[in-house]
């Protein structure tokens, strides 16, 4: 395995994120010229922390399925938008530009995000062509394009069903401005260039209502973007893998009904 830590974010923003790589080495015994998809993971944490439960354990699951994995520990509050987004875009740039070195399929760079990390992943999904990103990173927009999104109980909307604290942590005082909030309501920003998406949520999520995933899925449908949505009937927020591996110390996080999401996402990736 190739395990490295790379600082991402470019020279034109104030803070750097840390990109951790988990790349499978090619072997002369097993298709030595193989190009693997890579899953770039954005853990949740309400834009005030980066959750360990939604980080390396998820990376290990994608590794076990034969995919490369990378993990972004991005800047959170009091650092404000768009620094985390620039860090994620720079991470995609790094992966695509180093495709030959690491055996990455440059047409299968998939973002996986949980909760607020889902908002971050979806943000690059809808904003990757914005001029400010390519300008800040001194590259072309196509280099920053994700090829797919895997969104676990994502924060999406700043409207009626918003997780307000995520937007306050992301925007600071700017969260008082309707225009700024509206820009971060990602169901309003979906466009035909948004990549295909896999979403899952629980109908009983008390923190980030299931309407967040429903609104994003409906927007993808309106723009004819391929999408798959799974709604589980039970389960709280922040389940991660929903098994013992990612169980919190207080016992929360095991939800047998939801454990299938990682297999479903792996199957979905085969069609990207």
Written overview of the protein:
The chain is α/β, with parallel strands linked by helices. The chain has helices at 56-64, 83-97, 99-102, 116-127, 131-137, 164-171, 178-183, 211-222, 261-269, and strands at residues 5-8, 17-22, 36-42, 68-73, 104-114, 148-152, 197-202, 227-232. An 8-stranded mixed sheet has the order 1-2-4-3-5-6-7-8, sandwiched between helices. The chain is globular, with a radius of gyration of 17 Å. 49% of the residues are buried.
Would you kindly provide a brief summary of this structure?
By secondary structure, the chain is an alpha/beta fold.
Write the layout of secondary structure elements.
Layout: E1 5-8, E2 17-22, E3 36-42, H1 56-64, E4 68-73, H2 83-97, H3 99-102, E5 104-114, H4 116-127, H5 131-137, E6 148-152, H6 164-171, H7 178-183, E7 197-202, H8 211-222, E8 227-232, H9 261-269
Parallel strand pairs: 3-4, 3-5, 5-6, 6-7, 7-8
Antiparallel strand pairs: 1-2, 2-4
Helix pairs in contact: 2-4
GO molecular function: hydrolase activity
Keywords: Hydrolase
Organism: Candidatus Merdiplasma excrementigallinarum
